[in-house]
Amino acid sequence: MEERIKLKEKVQHGTPMFPINVYENLFWYQSNYLLPHWHDEFEIIYLEKGLASFSIDGQEYRLLPHQFLFVNCGSIHSGKAIDSPEAYAIVFNLNMLITSEPDICKTKYLQLIERRKQLVPSFVEDSYLRDVIFNLIEVWKKKEYGYELYIKSNLFMIFYHLFNKGYIVDSSFNREFNSKLEKIKAALDYINLNYSNPLSTEELSKITNLSKYYFCRLFKEITHLTPIDYINKFRVEKAIELIKNTNLSISEIAFEVGFNNVSYFIKIFKEYVGMTPLQYKKKDII
Q1: Residue 139, pLDDT above cutoff 90
Q2: Nearest-angstrom CA–CA distance, 93 and 19
Q3: Which spans of this chain does the record mark as coiled coil (predicted)?
Q4: Is 50 helix (H, G, I), strand (E, B) or coil?
Q5: Whether 184 contacts 222, CB under 8 Å
Q6: Most CB atoms within 10 A, among 98, 115, 144, 145?
């Protein structure tokens, strides 16, 4: 259990006093792709302009302008830009709405969401929720005095509406899927920690206690990528970080992120980013 806790995403969303952040640029670099990932925080994705598709726990959703998605705590999600999307992600720790004192809001509603006993449906068409989410983002951008009160009250209103209108669903019937999800999350965590070392589907399948064939099938079913595709794409992301933040050579970066063949690294990088690592480096300098 201790090891499992260490593998969780270590990104601090917001501050300890106000654990929420609104991210404005979801799609990075030239790839227009958001790799599959997970975190304990709840997330709301809102599309202001353009077109984008998202995958949440293996289900695909294509968003039009002013549509939104809910990402439950611990869900695996990814995204793909289709047509110049302007997308926002509201990521927050549910603890910001939960007191340490005896609290009916905590025990009757929010802890059930936090612990995945009940789930918010990923896609809801509801004009009230759309307006509350939009207003939250606008107030976040301006950050006028007292904005924290408005943000927190809007989050309460979102959950009030979801419970009051009967959108919330019980997750107990889907224990088998939740078990599968945990296995893929364990594989993602292992890759994220060991991407600089040699990795194989055999190794990953052993970690998840699944056969190689079933592991590969389940991984693709939930992430829409093969394990090798995910490993390569994750390594390219790490390579871009090194290109932008270090003076390492392209060869040094290739080996640093786990590629043992520089030509293969360049090939994969170009497929994902649309240019070679050297071209990207020169562009970044300019």
Answers
A1: yes
A2: 6
A3: none
A4: strand
A5: yes
A6: 98
